[in-house]
Automatic annotation (TrEMBL):
It is a single-pass membrane protein. SMART domains: IG, IGc2. Residues 1-74, 89-190 form the Ig-like domain. The lineage of its organism: Eukaryota, Metazoa, Ecdysozoa, Arthropoda, Chelicerata. It is found in: Membrane. One of its GO terms (cellular component) is plasma membrane. Its EC number is 2.7.10.1. Signal peptide: none annotated. InterPro entries: FGFRL (IPR052615), Ig-like_dom (IPR007110), Ig-like_dom_sf (IPR036179), Ig-like_fold (IPR013783), Ig_I-set (IPR013098), Ig_sub (IPR003599), Ig_sub2 (IPR003598). This is receptor protein-tyrosine kinase. GO terms for molecular function: ATP binding; fibroblast growth factor binding; fibroblast growth factor receptor activity. It comes from Stegodyphus mimosarum. The keyword Phosphoprotein applies.
């Protein structure tokens, strides 16, 4: 287990690591693998650790090591400090990028945004249920889309290789962090039959 904790410089960071066992376990806190050194900013209770007035020197991996005569278990917390005012993700170049492709071709959509907190990027595709694009509360129907045969290492890109008619539709990226989420304007992907590819200025279906 490894939880990410993002906090502002000068604020407090809280870590909680509860466990139970027989015989009753003991807990030891480590920072970056070394025994944790207490000072006036540190408050420890049985299963929790609190750091006050944190700064960049406090960044690192905090580990609670819980053990008894039967064994041990550990939990990690990664603390990141930001000196800047955090903000909700901001979409950059928020415009529609509609694309028309043929069956078997590749589609690449890019999500451009700014965020100074730990964030998550998801691509969604909208769909209809019984002819309606929203539910009874007005929430759009949509599902999470994974890159198809593409490089998933860059979540800003949605790469769809060897597209089929099932890939046609309306897409958007959603970026979220602890302060909220933002989404770009939707992009339409239109997929045409491979037989309609125009070669040398004429339709391949034409005699």
């Amino acid at each position: 287990m490894n939880d990410l904790i993002t906090a502002f410089s000068g604020s407090s960071a809280n870590f909680r690591c509860a466990a139970d066992g027989t015989p009753a376990p003991d807990i030891i806190w480590l920072k970056d693998g070394m025994p944790f050194e207490k000072d006036h900013r540190v408050r420890m209770q049985k299963w929790s650790l609190k750091l006050d007035n944190i700064n960049s020197d406090d960044e690192g991996i905090y580990t609670c090591l819980i053990s008894n005569t039967e064994g041990s278990i550990s939990f990690n917390f990664t603390l990141e400090i930001t000196d800047k005012k955090a903000f909700q993700p901001i979409i950059i170049e928020d415009f529609s990028t509609n694309q028309t492709v043929y069956v078997g071709q590749t589609v690449v959509l890019e999500c451009k945004f700014a965020s100074n907190l730990h964030h998550k990027v998801q691509w969604v595709k909208y769909f209809e249920v019984n002819g309606s694009s929203t539910d009874e509360f007005g929430v759009p129907y949509r599902k999470i889309v994974e890159a198809k045969n593409g490089n998933g290492a860059n979540p800003r890109l949605l790469i769809l290789n060897n597209v089929t008619f099932d890939d046609a539709g309306k897409y958007a990226c959603v970026v979220s962090d602890d302060l909220g989420s933002s989404s770009n304007k939707s992009s339409w992907i239109t997929v045409l039959p491979e037989s309609l590819v125009v070669e040398h200025g004429r339709n391949s279906d034409m005699p």
